[in-house]
TrEMBL record:
GO CC annotation terms, alphabetical: cytoplasm
Function comment: Plays a role as an inducible effector molecule that mediates Fas resistance produced by surface Ig engagement in B cells.
Protein name: Fas apoptotic inhibitory molecule 1
Keyword presence, Cell wall biogenesis/degradation: no
Family: Belongs to the FAIM1 family.
GO process terms (BP): apoptotic process; negative regulation of extrinsic apoptotic signaling pathway via death domain receptors
Keywords: Apoptosis, Cytoplasm
Main location: cytoplasm
Subcellular compartments: Cytoplasm
InterPro entries xref list: FAIM1, FAIM1_dom_sf
Pfam families assigned: FAIM1
Superkingdom in the source lineage: Eukaryota
Amino acid sequence: MASGDDSPIFEDDESPPYSLEKMTDLVAVWDVALSDGVHKIEFEHGTTSGKRVVYVDGKEEIRKEWMFKLVGKETFCVGAAKMKATINIDAVSGFAYEYTLEINGKSLKKYMENRSKTTNTWVLHLDGEDFRVVLEKDTMDVWCNGKKMETAGEFVDDGTETHFSIGNHDCYIKAVSSGKRKEGIIHTLIVDNREIPEIPE
């Protein structure tokens, strides 16, 4: 740069909501897949200053300065459904700390394992755009790119169909019995009469 300084240049003087330069105490980052999308949770913990900062999708949710107790927890909400999230701060030894994330009272790992049983997720490309479609099996709610879709259910000979639209594309999720007790119901996404493969989350 001509001026010789190392500060980043942003068009129209727009700076990002936060910059990594400021996040010198960043100790943990988690990606959490919810029905309305994948959310990035970042946590700063200043072990000398006692600072705690939580960012969700780049937006500051919690900021506490000069906390004398370095262990504890921070609770906040994530996503459109306002899921309760808690970061636990535990001392491991000396000045080493462990950071764990809980979603709705479960460890992130347990929450995601349970979620894989209660949701189906598909990713597809239509009209030059990527779409992430999530079916919540317990409620039969359908989400697409963070928005809950208007749906219409219909009984058919071999199961049910949940109809919705993405742009001008006709979509439905077909639910049929696997015939096996352990497998239960099989959900298939059909877009413009074409089956879309499911992605594991």
